Amino acid sequence: MSRDPQRAATQFFGGRVCLDFANTLDWRTSGDPQELIPDYTAFLGWCARRGTLSHQAIKALEVIAQKKPAAAAAAQAELLSLRSEIWSICDALRRGERSDLASVNALLAQAPPQPSLVRTDGPYVHNFSGRTLSEPLWPILWSLTAVLTSADASRIGCCQADGCGWFYVDESPNRTRLWCSSEVCGNRERARRAYAKRRKTIPGKRG
Question: Looking at domain 5-201, which CATH architecture does it have?
Fold first, then answer.
């Protein structure tokens, strides 16, 4: 992830929608995490960039959120609760442990039937109408179920850069991926380690 929150909010290194959503807290494992979707409107901006909803649905939801701020705040709280659940699930998968799926299964029980797909300027998206503020939650949830019911579940990785904590599906041949991005966190972490090593070799310097 980037040190710049605006840039970080446009970086999608997870490889799956649910993991990119999990990564909307920058510097997740540091002492100073940075929220990339501080409110529902910011979240809709993320949906537009990630391509989970049509432009028309996003515009309609923006209007509803402006008219019903309390409902938008409630929908945002539900989204952040799901994000926390995804963190817990991914951490358990990485350790080879069972995940507590009670909350996820409760959401699945409430989920609507998956709508038809429509083509956008980019990928296909679910054809939501933009009538209810909970609509953006469902593509994330369906992405999570796809991960959990596929080989992806055994390939969940977490960036090893100090303080990052971003998740990804490790699709490297030998499952040796260490970073959310080799060019971003990888380069920064290699530089940090090289600097720390040099300090240890300089007389009079403490590590």
Answer: Orthogonal Bundle (1.10)
Contact by Cβ (8 Å): 8, 34: yes
- The torsion defined by the Cα of 113, 119, 120 and 121, in degrees rounded to 10, comes to 160
Cβ 159 vs Cβ 179: under 8 Å? yes
Pick from 86, 68, 79, 106: nearest CA to 158: 86
Give yes or no for residue 1 having a pLDDT over 60.
no
- Helix 55-67 to helix 69-94 angle, to the nearest 10 degrees? 120
Given 3-state DSSP classes, what are the helix, strand and coil percentages for the chain, each rounded to the nearest 5?
A: 50, 10, 40
pLDDT at 205: 55
Determine the distance from the C-alpha atom of residue 7 to the mean position of all C-alpha atoms in its chain, rounded to a whole number.
Answer: 14
Q: What is the pLDDT of residues 23-60, one digit of tens each?
A: 999 999 999 999 999 999 999 999 999 999 999 999 99
Extents of the domains making up the chain: 5-201
What pLDDT band is residue 207 in, cutting at 50, 70 and 90?
very low
